[in-house]
User: Fold these one by one.
Assistant:
Number 1:
Amino acid sequence: MNVPTDLKYTKSHEWVRIEGDVATIGITDHAQSELGDVVFLDLPEVGRALQQEETFGSVESVKTVSDLYAPIAGEVIETNAALSGQSELVNTDPYQGGWIVKLRIADPAQAEGLLSPEDYQGVIG
Amino acid sequence: MPHKLVPQPKLIFEKSSPGRVGCNLPVADTPEVDLKKALGPTRQSLHLPEVSELELIRHFTNLSHINYGIETGFYPLGSCTMKYNPKINERTAMIPGFTHIHPMQPADTVPGALEVLAQVQEFLCEICGFDSICLQPLAGAHGELTCLMLIRAYHESRGEGATRRVVLAPDSAHGTNPASAAMVGYTVKTIPTDASGGCDMAALTTALDETVAAFMVTNPSTLGLFETQIEEICRLVHEAGGQVFCDGANMNAMVGTTRPGDHGFDCMHLNLHKTFSTPHGGGGPGCGAIGLKAHLEPFQPVPVVIRNKEGKVELDDRRPHSIGRVSAYFGQFLMEVRALTYLSAYGKERMADISRHAVLNANYVKARLKDVLPAAHDRPCMHECVLTAQEYKKGGVRALDISKRLIDYGFHPPTNYFPLIVPEAIMIEPTETECKETLDAFCDALIAICEEARTNPDLLHDAPTTQIVGRLDEASAVKNLDVRWRAPQKVGV
């Protein structure tokens, strides 16, 4: 399973790419593999302030519906518009084209608590 | 062995030939009206199929041959109890005395129908160990919803309606449980399952407080395992002031053997269309009857069907605290006739045969498959077994591939990917109505398929190859649903 070394992770299978004060968030290759073909994403409004671990949306696949959790607190500055027509990007390109939401990070210290690639590899076994 | 792909049938629209008719009407002895003039171009724009009677009969007969149901083959769809519905149920449901009455007739003109309702209620009360049964809910989830409405009314009557706002449900629950709770306005909290497949008692104890309205428990659980701690669970929830609802989807494992009412549950729903052999889904409307203990009776839906001291059945509307009707009239009345037929055919003495044979069959399948598809939890199962296909995942084969391949071997696939807590879940519920030869043929097929998964996984990836359609693109089917036929555009028009 692909676990890029330049990202941070959560136990609930989100990945986070931190660039300056912006965090880009998606779901991991493992998560998309377990979910199966993604058919719909429920995404938050731009401008919404999220607390860490708050549910900000859901991802619906042919198998199930699963909540999305904010890995760190922040304000939603952009959601991936491409996903409304091409939800399959979450399956085919989970770490690039399939990104889900961008947050303006509220508290950079929270990033320290996220899982390293090695730790996340341990979570998924 | 797999057969080859059969040709895709044409739609009835595609068989249409302009001007062809199914019957010739006699010459009219009244003034004729030109339909084209009278109706305008309406008929043409509808593109109604124009076929002969024989073409029509062949079309639908051939379609019926491609259909698969319990009457064509084994249907081990876990959590659905696809048992055979004896034909005598249909005979009794067609008795003119039942089909030619109207629900708005005065009650004293339909004593036979009221007697049916009362007898079904009495049977179900005794089987489930409750004080009352209400037959109004029209499906299982409707029964859940009604039970939660009763629980809400009960808490409100005690002045705790505003504080008790949380409903607990296990992580293995049917999706309808949290949905029903949300529909009644409750917040849902999930209780994890422990390593043995039972309720995590420590997590339950932590979650129980004065905000909890109810715990929704499926017993046996969706893992096909009996919740052995159920009496303690009910005691703890009651101690915290909550109510315990039993999701009765799996009642087939307990009929005649053990009773949810005795375990401590306050209310439950039943699926007559699962456990008591009335038709499922498109085959006939469902019935999600509910059972309740005496303390919930003041709130039950009206009219309540009761038997008075003289033995006469009456309708009782005098329930000032009732939550009201939850469906028109008395639910799906003819389903209740079918269920009564089934219950009467078994009788009290043989009722336990249902659960004993259902449990035996599931354990037989589990034991025969243990080397190729091990159970998610290694303990005796109830009426269904939840197996895991996880070991095939590294070779690129998923539970879905195994199930699709079963179609090529002539079997309906079992339930996949449920409960969600079991990786690559395959949930098999054989029911009591299958013989050993059928179970063996099914197990032989699954064993052969698991061997194919190791040696030739593409056979599974390509499956099914013997049906009118191959592997469906489920994602596109959800995203780009298109079930409408469109007339081909005529060139130059």
Number 2:
Amino acid sequence: MKDIVEIRWHGRGGQGAKTASLLLADAAFNTGKYVQGFPEYGPERMGAPMTAYNRISSERSTVHSNIYEPDYVVVVDETLLSAVDVTAGLKKEGAIVINSGKAPEELRAKLHGYEGRVCTIDAGKISTEELGKNFPNTPMLAAIVKVSGVVEPEAFVKDMEASFKHKFASKPQVIEGNMRALKRSMEEVRIG
Amino acid sequence: MSHLAKDMTPDVTWRDITPGCNIYEGGTSQVVETGDWRTMKPVIDWDKCKQCLLCAPVCPDMSIPVGKDGKRGDFNYFFCKGCGICANVCPFGAISMVKEDK
Amino acid sequence: MGIRERLSGNEAVAYAMKQINPDVMGAYPITPSTEIPQYFSAYVDNGEVDTEFIAVESEHSAMSTCIGAEAAGARAISATSSCGLCYMTEMLYVAASSRLPITLAVCCRALSGPINIHNDHSDAMGVRDAGWIMLFAETNQEAYDNYLQAMRIGEAVGLPVMVCQDGFITSHAIENIELEETDKVKKFVGQYKPQHYLLNKDEPMAVGAFGMPAYYMEAKRQQAQAMIDAKDVIRKVGKEFGEMTGRTYGLVENFMMDDAEEAIVLIGSSAGTAKEAIRQLREQGRKVGLVKIRSFRPFPSEELAESLKNVKAFAVMDKDDSFNAHCGPIFAETSAALYAAGISAPKGINYIYGLGGRDVRVDSIKHVFSQLDKIVETGKTGETYRYLEVRE
């Protein structure tokens, strides 16, 4: 497994981190990769911290364990930074992507001396402006794709458009909103 | 290989016994004589019997035959186990239980 | 060519059920197998299958439903986990001894207590003597493939089949999978044509007879023969499946065992993690290998003896404890297999591991091999009954 990319998602129960990890697996799958997308279930209460994982590779990974030394970490809820050691094991060649309106350097202090790239994306703001509701999944997904390059960005945009068209066939305004959110997020993610 | 119930005797081998001891025919109890379980035997006094037919449906072994004419006949002693329920329900004391004399 | 997809283990099993379109499903939900009847009931609702879906009030009733349906001449299925499987136990024995080839999907989960929803094999191992054929999957692909083969195997020998996968680890993880076209699946699985069945108006039948001591042993000996015969049927069906898909199955999978001096024996999803550990150790020149048991019932005694006869040391890993102050069930049966074959040179130890969802990492497997190294170096086996990665 020379080219395997491992990603860990941190969210709270009900925020869609598991769904986002599955969407990323879908996007990578659709560009020909081998994927794993799986949640680590806890007590499963709304609001409780939870973790989900992705392995993405060009050869099948047979490993069935959680991920302890991820290449990337995605934090769907900024308040988790003080509750969970989100950078535990995170490779410094990798990056952490945080859902926040703050600049990356403002958050670095909370990351236990993490030396790699710190990226922020205001997923809540983008989602509210483009979709009228706080659905951070699409912006977070776009941001991690942009930062990690785990899926080729152009192919990713095309694939997401096809999947939105399939999912929201009767609601064209939702398709357009999601696509705007997606493209904006890829542009607006701040890499520090 | 026979799968008939009559061939499932206590000397049947494990290869020949029916899978799951399942039984592939109906009415197999007809060949089993339960009358020899009896220690007490019901006897009917036809003079007292009013043909009310309360006895026939309570018999657990269907040993009280009822004819097409709607009247009960004598006991089927091949199956009757001598439980005495018929004697107990008879309102007219027409059935008495006597010691089996084999 | 198969169809490239990505599905969770539960989705894969529900999809296999849809392709087979069985006659009856009796099911009661329990984590982590709930999604299987949930997805399948949607297929029923959408008219994609014409299965009679019977929602019952307990697992005991779910299995009773299957028994009645299968005895009637229908193909019956269910799915369960953990205490749900325990609650089915009484009826599992009835299904097997009545020789009814029901198919049961099991997402293996720990038993209480403490209460735990995560994976180990306590549930499946608890019913290992119920008389069911038990196939275990490493991946979502194997869960799907085993399900497609289950009815062919069970119906050939007249025994019910459990298709087991690891709760959450494969049941809830999305991975790539290759699906087969539905017409090929239908042709492979075929129709269920029982010789005797309750709804045959031309042949009255009784199921569930009373067996006196004069008959009971003969009935059980015949049931035992069906399990012995299942070995060849599993091999034959696995080979035929391979001809269709390119994925051939036997009772075990030997991974890098040809020249192995140290080996691990285990069941289920941790086999994939063990394979990665073995690849890494092989890169360092270490002669290590894995024997993955696919068919736990019937138990692959000849295969294990053949695979292990030349190793210096082996570790059998049980995701379950028998609490017999001695060892887990797979170690007990593996040791018996070696003893019966007259093999005594390899030194064997037992690890109880992964209970209640304790994560099994590549390093966990490497640790086991490091312990085997010590045994080979010193010639001393030491304690055979060990717990892996428990805090001291």
Number 3:
Amino acid sequence: MIRMVDVFKEYSNGVKALKGVSFELNAGEFAFLVGPSGSGKSTIISLLVGEIAPTDGLVIVNGQDMDNIKMRKMPYLRRTIGTIFQNFRLIEYKSVYENVAFAMRVIGAANRDIRQRVPYVLELVGLEYKAKSKPDELSGGEQQRVAIARALVNNPKLIIADEPTGNLDPARSLEILLLLKKINELGTTVLVVTHEKPLVDQFSQRVIAIDGGRIVSDAMDRYYNYESQ
Amino acid sequence: MKVNRNRSFYYIREGISSIFAHGLMSFASICIIVAFLIIMGSFIMLALNINALIGVLESENIILAYVHESLSESDARALEPRIRAIHNISSATFISREEAMQSFARRFSDSNMFEDIDVTIFRHRYAIYVEDVSQIVQTQETLRNIRELGNINANHAIAQTLVSVRNVVTWISVIIIAVLLVISLFIMQNTIKLATYERREEIALMKMVGATNAFIRWPFIIEGFILGMTGSILAYAAVRGLYELAASNMFLFEGGFFSLITFSTSISIPIFLLFIGIGFAVGVGGSVIALNRYLKV
């Protein structure tokens, strides 16, 4: 699903964000990618969604080598990845229904399929009764659930959540992670990027820790292992 | 096929709804197109009127060709077909010696002073109008080949001045219109850039969920097309309305120097097409160029 082998990334301003990162995430897995600000988490996300290319090393996502992918094929690869952002990235002037349907329209889905699928995912995230609301009428937790519904609607193989609870209070944060866990149990591979230790500690899941551009810990544990090393 | 129809419908719907969703930017874009096209249209009409005025002055610039004194009136009149056959001559009017003297006498308040003057001191003559005043010297030389004609007078200085003025006005018009065009394209592109910048998050999101560049571009192209066309049509209506209002007021002074040319189809159609072309180029071209930088991800 995800395979990174000895990946280096140096930006044009000379910043070395990644210094030989290697890890794998197999189909059906759920993992946290944790680390402090500036550790390289965002660079990994950007590499996985094809926003940037590695300076050296191998990045494979859903079977596609990200360094050799043709630009015209990139949209089709991105359709196999559902991405969730810290700031939700909802389109303000569209309703909840249209924000979710938008991801299906983008790939040219037929209206009949959209009418069937969107209510299903809205029900899955518990927002079927808010379909006609605009994003600014929703709480932060509800907005993030809309973003999750949008990420799910095209039935992606992989979901990458970039600090999905960064703008939420602890109770809403837990709700969102439980929802992502539920989605994982339905068969979707999930990678959650976060720096919120207390939240990670509530789950007994694989935790990949990165610091200073290097993987410092990768274990099935409920704690930040690398902090105690 | 069904999917394509769905998509076309989606592009059009998105393009139109986006105009209203970003109402302020849409309004600003249309205002800028209208403002610049009104300035450009006004200048075009000014240039056309100056050109028409010079044309009137040119048409009044005549060559006077005097017939040799030995020729009778009938022989002098017989020269007319030979004169008219010369290239660049639009018309030639015969003026007999009697008509010449009467015309001369009219310039003086005391007509009695001409009573004892023999009409034969005046010559028969032709008032000759040319098509192209810049070729007046060549036309004068050709007229000299007609041996029955004596002096052939033409005011070269006035002719040359008119030609120079026309050339200067033409060049200034072309340069100012070109500069206005470049400025309007630049400002419009920046307006569209600003509008696109405001929506960069939306574009980034579309890229992230797997939209192709064509899918992202089409609603923007349709939006730019509608804004450009709306601006062009409003500007055309404004230029035409304002010009006709100005022309009707100038009519009050028709007895004065000159009246404005009419907004005939030979003027209105090219101006309408020019405005539509600029609206299309600015709306659609500006959208495509401004969008490109956000699609390279």
